[in-house]
Design a protein that fits this description.
This protein is of the alpha+beta class. It folds into 4 domains: 15-60, no CATH class; 64-180, Tetrahydropterin Synthase, Chain A; 226-266; 269-305, no CATH class. It has 7 helices and 10 strands. The protein has helices spanning 3-22, 98-104, 108-128, 140-154, 176-266, 269-279, 281-285; strands at residues 24-27, 31-37, 40-41, 49-52, 58-63, 67-76, 82-93, 162-173, 289-292, 301-305. A hairpin with an 8-residue loop joins strand 9 and strand 10 (301-305).
Length: 309
Amino acid sequence: MDKRTIAMIAIPLVLIIIIAMACTTSVPAGQVGVGSLFGKVETTPYAEGLNFKNPMTEVTLFDARQKTHLESMFVPSQDQLTTKFDISIQYRLIKEKAPQMLTETGTPKEVIDVHMIPLLRSQLRELGKSVRTAEEFYNQEIQQRIQQELLTALSILSSKGIKVEKLLIRDVILPKIITTAVIRKKEAAQAAEKAKEELKKFKVDQERKEAKAEAEKRAELIAAQKKKEVMLIEASGKLEAARIDAQALLVSAKAKAAANKVMIEALTLKGYIKLESMKYLKDFQKGNHVIIMDPNATSPLPFLNLDKK
């Protein structure tokens, strides 16, 4: 086969391939295609997969998968202080409204820039005006209220082909003057709490010391009381012993007196005198003298000197 024959076969084949490619379009998964011919948008979108079309039709793809838009903006409160909000919006484009979006707004990016972002900023600023002070933006209830009201406000975007599924406040950054005040307030609260704990500890220590002192005082009182009781018992014992001794002496004296009385009563006066004289006989004997007492005489007379040499 010569070159001319090959060229005659190849050229029509290439033309057929080019025309076939121009007459078809491939739409990736999760997307939808919108065709426009000479500026007129087709009302029926192209679904996922291979689609036949007019070779002159231009296809614009709309990604209908879930996406997240991150937005940061400053929101003023009633005290005229601005607080920075970082917000995440989860959304998806509505496939059925892709032709409408292309006709009324343009590409998917233009749809987001024209409809969603301005509405979000406007609604968030309006909600910020309902908050009295910037510091209240840290309140969990206020944040939840803002999230819910924003989500409700953005739900009207479905008419523009945007379905907002979730809205989250990722971060709230208060003005520097507020953060400084909050830090100082927190430090003061921590210092107060520390002082409170120290005071509590001091009170506990004081109570412990007072209890110890009271216990020691009670112990001293008990010891003094016991000592007093012991002394009283000892004194009582001594007093009782002295009483017993005195009573014994008194009994002895009484017995002696009674014995003397009996003896006196038993003897005559002369016999008593003689008896008393005999008591001193031994004393006279120590001087080697014997004195014979004559009871009938008025005075004793020496009778015999036993020591005479």
